[in-house]
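Changelog entry

Holo records now carry the ligand SMILES as an explicit input line rather than a separate metadata file. Below, a converted record for S-adenosylmethionine, shown in the new format.
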Amino acid sequence: MAEIVGALHEFHDETFVRGWADRFKPTPDRLALFDLILKQIEDLRIGAPHVLELGIGPGYLAHHILERAPNLRYEGLDFSEAMFGIARETLAQHLDRLTLTSADLTDPTWSQSLSRQPDAIISTWSLHDLFSPAAVGDVYARCFETLQPGGVLVNGDFIKPDGTTLEYEGGRFEVSKHLELLRQAGFTKPECVELFEIETEAPTAAQNYACLVAHR
Ligand SMILES: C[S@@+](CC[C@H](N)C(=O)[O-])C[C@H]1O[C@@H](n2cnc3c(N)ncnc32)[C@H](O)[C@@H]1O
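Structure line, unchanged by the conversion:
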């Protein structure tokens, strides 16, 4: 049987989550994506932006951003209490600027759980876990409705690279499909600003991700 590029996670299992968070420590390529996301937030030129992360996980992206942007307030959404436990440890120095919001991104009402309207919505390696382009498109549509006018959505996530003959799990699909879904959600000029760790011949589940940017 052909192998499918992807990975299964048990995000509600405390033991699995602890081990996974240890293995998932950011590499230099991943830190470059974090810097790119931070730049998109800084380019908004808002004094004290409210930033929402979809799938805060262990808080690695949150830590990178909160350390470098002292005026920013951060809201981390996730559906895993086990992840919130680790995020509180990772972000212990920044709890006064952090809100953790429990919600499931497959529930179309997730945006009603937010503490306030965000200036930026960011995410890394989370939306592919929704397993289909339709589910990711629904999240993009909620993001468009939820963002402040002038705000930005930045999604750094695993994709299916162009030119591959391999099969990928449903949540990993082409950049062109992401851009189409972003346009359908209402964003006028979505773009892919960078591709990371592209490997078409023999990829691991940790390679092939894109930084997608869309302004409201
Ligand atoms: C790869 S981790 C995110 C890592 C994080 N960006 C960081 O830098 O530490 C993916 C996260 O998405 C969350 N997630 C997956 N499916 C979700 C869903 N349907 N609703 C909410 N969160 C979800 C998982 O619980 C997990 O914490």
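Spot-checked after migration. Helices lie at 14-23, 28-42, 60-68, 81-90, 133-146, 175-185. Strands lie at 4-5, 50-54, 73-78, 98-102, 120-124, 152-158, 167-168, 191-196, 209-215.
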